[in-house]
Design goal:
The chain contains 19 helices and 14 strands. The chain is an alpha+beta fold. It folds into three domains: 216 residues, Periplasmic binding protein-like II (D-Maltodextrin-Binding Protein, domain 2, 3-Layer(aba) Sandwich), CATH 3.40.190.10; 236 residues, D-Maltodextrin-Binding Protein, domain 2 (3-Layer(aba) Sandwich), CATH 3.40.190; 79 residues, no CATH class.
Length: 563
């Protein structure tokens, strides 16, 4: 993604997390009751505890920590000693100690070394393969009882609203990790509807429809003499989302593959129930054939994979079709500024032959794990409670601002599973008068309340028509991108009937750590050459053979062991 897109995605994640962190949870009763010294008790007796109670004596939590070497802290603060960690100590008697630190790029290797030597900190963040390795080695605390006893209603509400999330980290009936939640994402097809209306074209359903629309745009010079039909991946970008970047749906070609029931870049089950790499399937070959044909006809950007900035094609008005998630309008503001008739509308298309709209499923890849011998596992639950619930009054005075993942220990992205749907549906109802602003659940959906507070300043009648001419872009320019993205992109996404396919693996296996970089390079190079016609289609079969020979076969066996 371009730098701008990265910043936008980070901003959305921040809004998602901010909504979760600032929401009101159970009252901080401060009854003075102190959690038991150890959460590894075998008793099934339910003991009433105050999940926010301050420890009578300091409890030290040693961490393995990923550090961004370029992050600028305030004054002399560090990741270990900052406004947030000092507030934790003063308010809850939780003392953060870094057993070791590693730069972001070296963190995964440091975690693997800690696991291999069985020299673990009390808690740390790991990926899926590391989690499974630790479960197999019996290194982790069973968090089942401490989660039930010490988890707040708010924390449990978040996990309950994300079906299957806790089940994915439960082995033999025991809860071994606390997973992050994910922003929902699927790639929609974004089209200049003003161009379609001018040419009398209908909205697309199939790949053939998309091809016809793109060809009409080109033939009629809708973007000028160098009109681009379908925008593709830019230089350094990915052709499609992968199991390591499951939510990366902006400006790549994933929907073309999905419409062919192909899932390159992720791990799927074959007809025998065995794991197979989606990039090696016959369906992926068929999708490459379509893209190769589009490229030859001039439908697909002639500079796909080579263009310095695909975003510039949208901003300059040269292109009229691209693929991207519901939040894509955040990146269309310059296009609209340059042409106030630029009516970018999303469509849940293209469909496959069975008229289904397919997508891979965005998956969380980060988990908090706790060392089996740690005497205070409930302290980790308490830290997550603090993260997702409304902060005590002391927070405003001691911290007074939102902190980042570099300052908050064991930081996870946490949010209710229906955040987007609630935001869209509620804002629509406030706009039409079906719901009063005061009725919006501000406690649990703070960002929705902010959007709904401004929607009547921004969306004009008819309220159910999201074409660009029915928006007021000037009255509140700061909130226009938020409201426009949620109602325009968000409404299409939440109303779509999506057939999800989840990757069987969401992190690297052991063999991947040494082989995956070369295998991915092989895949990217040959796929792009096939699309551009510089390599024959038969090279796909050669690629599959090389991929298996150079480690893919062993990796597939490892993924099958994860099932």
């Amino acid at each position: 993604m371009s730098k701008r897109v990265k910043l936008t995605a980070i901003g959305l994640i921040a809004a998602f997390t901010l909504s979760a962190c600032s929401n009101t949870g159970p009252a901080n009763t401060n009854s003075g009751s102190t959690p038991p010294a150890s959460g590894n008790t075998n008793t099934t007796e339910q003991v009433a505890v105050d999940p926010f109670a301050k420890y009578e004596e300091p409890v030290t939590v040693s961490l393995g920590r990923s550090i961004d070497p370029n992050y600028k802290y305030e004054g002399s603060d560090t990741a270990e000693d900052n406004l947030y960690t000092r507030w934790l100590k003063d308010t809850y008697n939780i003392v953060i100690n870094h057993e070791w630190e590693a730069a972001t790029g070296d963190y995964a290797q440091k975690v693997s070394l800690a696991i291999g030597s069985n020299d673990l900190p009390d808690a740390m963040l790991v990926d899926e393969s590391q989690l499974r390795q630790m479960v197999k080695a019996d290194q982790l605390a069973d968090l089942t009882e401490v989660y039930e006893q010490h988890g707040t209603e708010r924390l449990k509400q978040i996990y309950d609203s994300n079906p299957g999330l806790l089940e994915s980290v439960t082995f033999d009936g025991k809860l071994y990790a606390l997973p992050e939640t994910t922003l929902p994402s699927a790639p929609l097809t974004w089209i200049r509807k003003d161009w379609m209306d001018e040419l009398g074209l209908s909205e697309p359903k199939s790949l053939e429809d998309l091809e016809a629309i793109a060809q009409a745009f080109i033939d009629n010079n809708m973007g000028g003499p160098n009109t681009v039909g379908v925008v593709g991946t830019q230089q350094g970008g990915s052709l499609y989302s992968t199991f390591l970047s499951s939510s990366d749906h902006y400006m790549n070609l994933s929907p073309v593959f999905f419409a062919k029931d192909a899932y390159p870049g992720i791990w799927i089950e074959d007809e025998n129930g065995q794991a197979t790499y989606g990039s090696t399937t016959e369906n992926t070959k068929q999708a490459l054939t379509t893209l190769r044909d589009w490229y030859a006809k001039g439908i697909l950007d002639r500079e796909v994979g080579l263009r310095k900035s695909s975003q510039e094609l949208l901003t300059s008005g040269q292109a009229g079709i691209f693929f991207g998630p519901w939040w894509s309008p955040y990146n269309l503001m310059d296009s609209i500024k340059n042409d106030d008739q630029a009516n970018w509308r999303p469509y849940a298309a293209p469909l496959n032959e069975e008229q289904q709209f397919n997508s891979n499923q965005a998956t969380g890849s980060t988990f908090i794990v706790v060392k089996k011998s740690f005497k205070n596992p409930e302290a980790i639950i308490k830290m997550l409670n603090i993260h997702v619930n409304e902060k005590q009054e002391s927070y405003k005075e001691a911290v007074g601002k939102e902190m980042t993942s570099q300052e908050i220990p064991l930081f996870l992205i946490m949010g209710l599973g229906d955040q987007l749907e609630y935001a869209v549906k509620t804002t629509q109802k406030v706009l039409t008068g079906e719901l009063e602003l005061e009725e919006v659940d501000k406690a649990n959906y703070g960002f929705t309340y902010e959007i709904a507070s401004h929607v009547k300043e921004i969306k004009t009648e008819p309220f159910d028509n999201y074409d660009i001419q029915y928006w007021d872009k000037e009255t509140n320019p700061d909130f226009f991108p938020h409201v426009y993205s949620h109602l325009n992109g968000g409404s299409t996404f939440v109303d779509a009937d999506i057939q999800w396919t989840r990757s069987l693996a969401t992190a690297q296996t052991k063999t991947m750590q040494s082989r995956w970089s070369n295998l991915k390079k092989l895949e990217d190079e040959i796929f792009l050459k096939i699309i551009m016609g510089s390599a024959p289609l038969e090279e796909f079969d050669t690629f599959v053979e090389k991929w298996n020979q150079q480690g893919g076969k062993d990796i597939t066996a490892e993924v099958n062991e994860l099932k």
